[in-house]
């Protein structure tokens, strides 16, 4: 995140005053605590459903959740707000709770001098986005837990991420003292910051076209930052970045640059072999804390794994390397085994472990492994995973990883590894399992529905299609209001929280992939309905693009708009691709116009930093390529129809949509299917571009040749 720093000198003046006061004393500030003020005060988090908020429900702090009640209390009592934002699987959030929020001395100061608000960033990404942007502007960096101090009106004036106990007590005392003596100056600085924050959160730059020069610039940046030794980009912490690999594969397809493909394949293999990947059962951890992918931050997030499934499957389609297919399958199988509600929704995350115990579930000590296995099994595993007595992680522990010069283990082909793996997993099962964040979020589920549906297309396994269908049905039944709008979160039988644009865009994305897997028109009809609601509630008519929130929550300091990719792609970038695909299914120009408006409204940002906008560039690639509308007239239970489909799914053809008419009623909006009929009773494919179709064919090789035509990029 970047922030416009101009015209906020008053803000910095106040921050300097606070920091000077903090530097005067290393002792905790002694404040008068009035016990009688506790009348009617209590920790309100006990009434919440969020696993993160419930983790703090028994703190001695009088926590509020975000909302009108908390802000009204701050105004009524004329107290600054302490805002703490985190999430349930956040390692350092657990640390700050144990170090500060469970302590009576911290609670005494917060309860007397502040209104304390706790936010689950995954339930309230709209709140998190606003204040994380402010934090980055103040400190040059961000992270969770986020610790922000606000005026009673919700305007930020001081912030940090993790703060250790003694410093936290000192900060609390000094801010309380400054507020008591000079609240007007702090309010003045909060006003100035809020003004600049609103301007940044809602960019209103000019709109212009984006062409292949942006794709070339993106590739040049990726190539210059590529770690040629270990894969990935840069050094230090390395994140999954699946949208970057998807954009690079599209660039390779049309530019033919072998280095673009090499960046993707070498990095995906390095990640699969590294400790960031749970080699024993599948699933990827949040990020690697070293440049070699060996030691991860151990939490596992649904959205990371959804994106990586697609990246590995696309790499498999391009290269036919079975290792990529095996990793994608293994990841999906882990999701089905450990991250799926019995009724179909996908859970959010698994924990990294409590502070001081991170990785206990996953890491192995040398002697422990030797005792569990036969000498032959241990020697095989020792060489396979480079186990050492010293370990490669804290406290002489080994994080399992597979060196590049060793064959990647496959239990189906390596009986010695299979036996050892079974014993290691049996021992791991006796350990305390990572805590599960079992809430169901629409946007993260939309990404996983798309991944599972694409997994079915690429690998032909029906269980992934069943999982995608079941998850979509879960959202339809449990998280959809009577008017068709979405609740953002479901947990423990309750659907709640106002949906943001990501919920609509990511679910539409999942439904489009699901339709292209089983060709059930109800998924397409639902996608059209959701797109209409997204346009109605989030579209910025004067400037183009979609706002993050629907403007119906008066507690938010500002509406925001996102285009750049963070851990997940932005709602605008996914929406642009959705709209382009809907246009090709329906031949309705309103979708294409809106997609172009989204892309054009991002042009200035993309030009400045193309590497941060990989998912937008995926949509740009679709828009400027010879994207294909493919209709197949034939029944799905006819092997000849399936042969045509398998041909199209066997190749890497990202810029296409496929619709099938099986002789039953199709969605009225699927104009692509109009007039498409079998040839003398044989299933027939029609490959079209902007409504102009090539000669219909019943031959799988011919339809594939017609679909592979593309516009080449010349550097």
Strand count, sense and barrel status of the largest sheet are: 5 strands, mixed
Counting DSSP E segments of at least 2 residues, the number of strands comes to: 19
How many domain units?
4
Going by CATH, the architecture of the largest domain would be Alpha/alpha barrel
Distance between the termini: 30 Å
Give the overall pLDDT as a whole number.
91
**Spatial strand sequence of the major β-sheet:** 1-3-2-4-5
Helix content: 40-55%
CATH class of the largest domain: Mainly Alpha
Q: Into which percentage range does the β-strand content fall?
A: 5-15%
Low-confidence stretches: 1-37
Describe the global form. globular
| Oligomerization | single chain
What does this structure look like?
The chain contains 25 helices and 19 strands. With 715 residues, the chain is an alpha+beta fold. The chain has 4 domains: 193 residues, Glutaredoxin, CATH 3.40.30.10; 329 residues, Glycosyltransferase; 68 residues, no CATH class; 80 residues, 3-Layer(aba) Sandwich (Glutaredoxin), CATH 3.40.30. A 5-stranded mixed sheet has the order 1-3-2-4-5, with helices on both faces. It has a 4-stranded mixed sheet with strand order 17-16-18-19, with helices on both faces. Strands 8-9-12 form a 3-stranded antiparallel sheet. The radius of gyration is 27 Å and the shape is globular. The N terminus is likely disordered.
